[in-house]
Amino acid sequence: MATRDKRRRTQLDRASYHDPDAFARDLHAGGGPDLGDLDSLPGPSFHGQLLRAIWGNSAAEFADIVTSEQLREQRERPHVFVRKWRR
C-alpha cells in the first residue's frame, strides 16, 4: 500500500470554497492548518484572524511560539526534560 508523503488532518480543498471565511472556519473546526498551510492562511476575516492568533502568521512564527513555550516550561520545571534531548 502506498502512503502519501503529505498527510493532512483535514481533507479540505481551498478551491472548493468561494468564501475564505467559511474555509477558515472549517479549517479551525477540523483541527487547524498543517505547518505547510500556515504561510497561506485565509484573509482578514474573523476566522482567518482567529487562525493567525492561534498558530501565528507563518510556519517560522509558529516555530518561534513553540520554542518560547518550551523554554518557559523548561525554566518552570527544570527537573523535567520538556524537549527531546539530542547529542
Account of the protein in words:
The chain is mainly alpha-helical. Helices cover 44% and strands 0% of the residues. It is built from three helices and no strands. The protein has helices spanning 20-29, 46-55, 59-76. The longest helix has 18 residues, at 59-76. It starts with 19 loop residues before the first helix and ends in an 11-residue tail after the last helix.
User: How many helix segments?
Assistant: 3
Mean pLDDT: 79
- Using DSSP, what is the number of strands? 0
By helix and strand content, what is the structural category? mainly alpha
Low-confidence stretches: 1-5
Quaternary structure annotation: single chain
Shape: elongated
Spell out the key features of this protein.
single chain; 87 residues; mainly alpha
Quick structural gist:
The chain is mainly α and 87 residues long.
Structural topology:
Layout (H helix, E strand, L loop, with lengths): L19 H10 L16 H10 L3 H18 L11
Helix pairs in contact: 1-2
